[in-house]
What we know:
Chain A is built from 13 helices and 15 strands. A 13-stranded antiparallel β-sheet of chain A has the order 1-2-3-4-5-6-7-10-11-12-13-15-14, covered by helices on one side. In chain A, strands 8-9 form a two-stranded antiparallel ribbon. The longest helix of chain A has 31 residues, at 232-262. Chain A has helices at residues 2-13, 31-42, 46-54, 83-94, 137-142, 145-157, 186-204, 207-216, 232-262, 268-273, 309-318, 326-335, 339-342, and strands at residues 98-103, 106-111, 124-131, 164-172, 277-287, 295-305, 345-355, 358-362, 367-371, 374-389, 395-408, 417-427, 433-441, 452-453, 458-465. Residues 1-18 and 49-82 of chain A have low confidence and may be disordered. In chain B, 3% of the residues lie in helices and 62% in strands. Chain B has one helix at residues 46-49, and strands at residues 4-10, 15-21, 27-35, 42-44, 54-57, 63-72, 76-85, 91-102, 106-116. Chain B is elongated, with a radius of gyration of 14 Å. The interface between A and B is large, with 52 and 53 residues.
Amino acid sequence: MKRLLIFLLFLLATPVFAQDSDMTAQPGETYGEWIKRLIAVGTQTEASIAADAAQASTEAAQTATERVLDKAVPEGSPETQGSLRDFLPFFFGSLGLGDVKDENGALTLTFNPELLKMGPKNPLSLQTVIRDPVIFDALIKEIPESIRADRKSALEEQLESFDDVEVNLSWSRESERFGRNPEDHNKLMGDLFADVTEKAAKKVGTTSTKKLLDLLADPNLDLSKKPGEADDSIRARLDPSIIAAAKEIGERQKVFTDQIKSRRWYELDDLVNNQPQILASATYRRREDLIGPDEWSAKLSFEMGFANINGLKKYCEDKGKSESDSDCLSDYLTKVGKTTDIAPRLKIEGEFGEFDQYFFELPADHVSYRLDRIQKTVIKGSLGGYMHSNAQGNQTTRVDLEGLFEDVTGDEKRNNRFVATLTFSQKMTGDMSAAFSVVYANKPEYLGEVDEELGARVGLRYKIDKGD
Amino acid sequence: MKTVEIYESVPDGSKLEVRFGPATGPIKGSVLFITSGNVADQTWPDSAIRPGPKIQKLEKDRAYMLEMHVGFTGAETATIEARIRKPDGSTYSTPKSWSIKGKKDTTELRVLIIRMAS
């Protein structure tokens, strides 16, 4: 009974060679061709079959990692271009200073990050946006209507190309502890891949392969001969060695692909994506008086998932294991349990900014316009994750809790305003999804638009998105 | 290039160079290097072979087998190049090179057998 069980297990472990007759040399096949065919058939994986089938299809889109360098172009306004503005993109591009985009009435110059040397762990992004100048709308409205159009035309004559310029500087941290660049974890991911290779080799062994290599080490052995042409003594040693080695190599490959999955090597990508990320940015916008007040702002954000590479390293260290030991990887992922499926994510963001005080007058028309200095403070926090996956393993139900505090001097709608939102999202068939939110505000006037009011400070919002 | 390739009659003292590519991208590689006789197997990690080259001296009266694994964490075309340099530094025979189109969360294997000259 035990022998039968072992035999059945052996059959299960070597599914590729259904019959030993498949393993014998085919008519007209040389030893070299035979070895190549057997090993190739024995090591063929689901992945290689799938890869061949996929060759005709389009290549899947690369997973985008959030990079600080990918900044959106800010909004712009109408078109009037000065000559220097026309030439600037040409000079900027031809000198290799960076990329230029001219759209929506704004010329955006993004400096080549190579020129901003703070090392590979501190990528910087410097961007200058030159907007087409537009007269400050609030100022125009202060001019009596009877002369407004004339004055506006006269003031527009005074506008110049560089009257509205914004500079953005962004920084992020990309290292083994911070940031989501997979390249920062090449060594760890590569060492874990090698560890699985080594463990699969140890589990299956290389005895039969070495036995074949011992025979192939004889330079007088002619692999261009067909088995029928070889001496009986050679055939007696070589033929069974080829079959045994091919089986062993096939088995080793099977164990390797199984262990890559069971030790959850592919999930390393998720752990990288959950690494803490720090982003900081500062913006200064200088405007001539005709266009509006100067303004600046600074933003700092921190984001992380809860099962990540830092957690893996700490776990292995605490257990006294090497971080490149695939046993430790699978133990860690077992310990964090469903955290990788739920993919909880925490984000905290703070912003502080100021609009300068502003004064402009047209004495002849007895028009003056004044704005006090405005300070803006925004603090935002969010925590979200997936609650449920469907039978296909696609995450379908999500919950997000978001808290927002903002205080803007002189703005009654944003004076010590706090709003908390709890949102449930459910993916439905196709691209259709539904969202249901409970909203709380610290003052009734801060609640905003809701579909149903449950009280002065609490409301409900629901939305069905039918997709495209 | 076929899944399995064989180098025949390689001169004693030649050096094998193995490199995986691309240097950046969603792939990792490893090589199980098996030598005939009573020689311990070696495992070459990604950092040794990508971009490489990993250089290995080859001795007469031996045969070698390389099991070259590529793991894909995203869609990518990986390359493997194996070249043998004779003791005088010139290239022996034609370098073996594989271009492997892989999908996310799959692995591929290529095998190289090396037989030495007498």
